[in-house]
């Protein structure tokens, strides 16, 4: 069988079964945003996450500012630590690059990584470099920490819990769509009104320079109210589906409760896209999605987390079933798989 038939998630399942191990000090292995390992310090767990970016798959050299690429790869790792409720600590960066790559390009990537690291109080402590016969590859492995009792997994959602999301999902996908329209010559940014221009700048930066929700993740863990937590890398539908699988539950979302931002709605009108589709199916928002007791107050929580928190649905006992209630009142199954590697 070829990888294109197996798909990314099929491959991960196989690796987990054949090579994944659960030693005495492994609290949680393959299958969550981070692995969780006993740190040796009593009451503190070590979090481990890694990410790999490949030129031509995740980015194109011609259209990517290397400093922003550096900021974004570290942000994706920081977001996974946030998605366990942890705080970042130290990380390594490995780089494979063709011999003719300008040194300035590499330096700009590390400059971006350094900026994000300083903002998150994480330290670059090592890595590896190698020549690549083809595309550039950059990998970050990040270590974080969390009080063991406060770590929030994907597996804890219970029927009757409410589902919450931070910020405004869909904005990153709208930014990507605007960038694509611009580079295809279908969007004349010079002709935009100042308001539309501001929307465009906001959405573009949400896509190119996403903000990991570290403070919110830590605050959520410290309050010990969330039952399951994940970050939105593949979209509300696909990431919620991971929570449902790990928790063996279902969910019903209310489309009209999705926190669609004004900028998202205006851009979607311009591009003839459905903002609900982008909010549910768009990736790389790096917001947090979590379940918690239905009595949790959105306003109190928004204040504690320092960003908007919106209740968007409820966990059900119908394992694996993900339904969305449209604004028209129609209920439909939500089958929107996020991006999967190796698929044709
Ligand atoms: Mg994640």
Short note summarizing the structure:
This protein is of the alpha+beta class and about 350 residues long. The chain is built from ten helices and 13 strands. A hairpin with a 6-residue loop joins strand 1 and strand 2.
Please describe what this structure looks like.
It is globular, with a radius of gyration of 20 Å. The mean pLDDT is 94. Strand 2 and strand 3 form a beta hairpin. By secondary structure, the chain is α+β, with helices and mostly antiparallel strands. The two termini are 14 Å apart. Strands 8-10-7-11-9-12-13 form a seven-stranded mixed sheet, sandwiched between helices. Strands 1-2-3-6-4-5 form a six-stranded mixed sheet, with helices on one face. The structure holds magnesium ion. Magnesium ion (MG) binds next to loops.
Would you list the SSEs in sequence order as H and E?
Answer: HEEEHEHEEEHHHEHEHHEHEEE
Taking all residues together, what is the mean pLDDT? 94
Can you tell me the overall shape?
globular
The biggest beta sheet is recorded as: 7 strands, mixed
Q: How many helical elements?
A: 10
Strand content: 15-25%
Spatial order of the strands forming the largest sheet = 8-10-7-11-9-12-13
Structural class: alpha+beta
Helix content: 25-40%
Question: How is the secondary structure organized here?
Answer:
Blueprint: H1 3-18, E1 26-28, E2 35-38, E3 44-54, H2 66-82, E4 87-97, H3 103-120, E5 123-131, E6 137-147, E7 162-166, H4 171-183, H5 194-208, H6 214-223, E8 226-231, H7 236-247, E9 250-254, H8 262-271, H9 275-281, E10 288-292, H10 298-305, E11 309-316, E12 322-325, E13 331-333
Parallel strand pairs: 4-5, 9-12
Antiparallel strand pairs: 1-2, 2-3, 3-6, 4-6, 7-10, 7-11, 8-10, 9-11, 12-13
Helix pairs in contact: 2-3, 2-6, 4-5, 4-8, 5-8
């Amino acid at each position: 069988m070829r990888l294109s038939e197996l798909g990314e998630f099929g491959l991960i399942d196989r690796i987990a079964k054949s090579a994944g191990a659960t030693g005495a000090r492994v609290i949680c292995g393959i299958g969550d945003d981070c692995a969780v390992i006993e740190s040796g310090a009593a009451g503190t767990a070590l979090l481990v996450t890694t990410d790999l970016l490949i030129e031509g798959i995740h980015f194109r050299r011609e259209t990517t500012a290397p400093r922003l690429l550096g900021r974004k790869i570290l942000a994706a790792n920081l977001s996974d630590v946030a998605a366990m409720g942890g705080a970042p600590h130290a990380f390594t960066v490995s780089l494979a690059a063709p011999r003719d790559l300008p040194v300035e390009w590499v330096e700009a990537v590390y400059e971006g990584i350094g900026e994000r690291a300083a903002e998150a109080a994480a330290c670059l402590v090592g890595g590896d470099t190698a020549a690549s016969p083809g595309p550039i590859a950059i990998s970050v492995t990040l270590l974080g920490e969390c009080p063991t009792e406060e770590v929030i997994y994907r597996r804890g959602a219970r029927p009757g819990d409410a589902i919450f999301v931070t910020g405004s999902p869909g904005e990153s996908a709208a930014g990507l769509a605007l960038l694509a329209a611009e580079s295809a010559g279908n969007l004349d940014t010079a002709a935009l009104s100042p308001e539309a221009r501001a929307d465009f700048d906001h959405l573009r930066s949400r896509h190119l320079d996403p903000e990991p929700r570290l403070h919110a993740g830590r605050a959520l863990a410290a309050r010990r109210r969330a039952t399951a937590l994940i970050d939105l890398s593949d979209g509300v539908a696909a990431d919620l589906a991971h929570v449902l699988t790990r928790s063996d539950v279902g969910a019903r979302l209310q489309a009209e409760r999705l926190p669609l931002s004004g900028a998202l709605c205006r851009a979607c009108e311009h591009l003839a896209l459905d903002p609900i589709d982008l909010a549910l199916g768009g990736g790389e928002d790096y917001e947090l999605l979590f379940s918690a007791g239905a009595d949790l107050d959105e306003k109190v929580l928004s204040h504690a987390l320092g960003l908007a928190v919106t209740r968007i649905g409820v966990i059900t006992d119908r394992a694996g079933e993900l339904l969305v209630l449209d604004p028209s009142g129609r209920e439909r199954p939500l089958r929107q798989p996020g991006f999967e590697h190796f698929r044709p």
